User: Fold this.
Amino acid sequence: MPRQRRKLSKTGTYHIMLRGNERKSLFPEDEDYRKFLQILTMKKREDSFLLYAYCLMSNHLHLLIREKKQNIDDISKKQNNQHRNNLILNLKKKLGNS
Assistant:
């Protein structure tokens, strides 16, 4: 079943939760946590959103974000795509396919 469309907030503040497929790890290596936070910091500066809080766990994460210039869907998509691309790149390096 697909997830329901996000309801827009009058305040522009959102609680974002992301889970790995089949509840698998989002952060296979300890280094992946640090890289995710680096990406989040970079995207925060680029997209000018406020980050009130975050919680990263092995198989899911929570972000409390307030929109500024970018809408929440674009913020989420950019962050998640960059993290996914880093995980794929790391896997290719481990397998010797870089």
Notes: Strands lie at 13-19, 50-56, 60-66. The chain has a mean pLDDT of 80. Residues 24-93 form one domain. The helical segments are 30-47, 72-95.
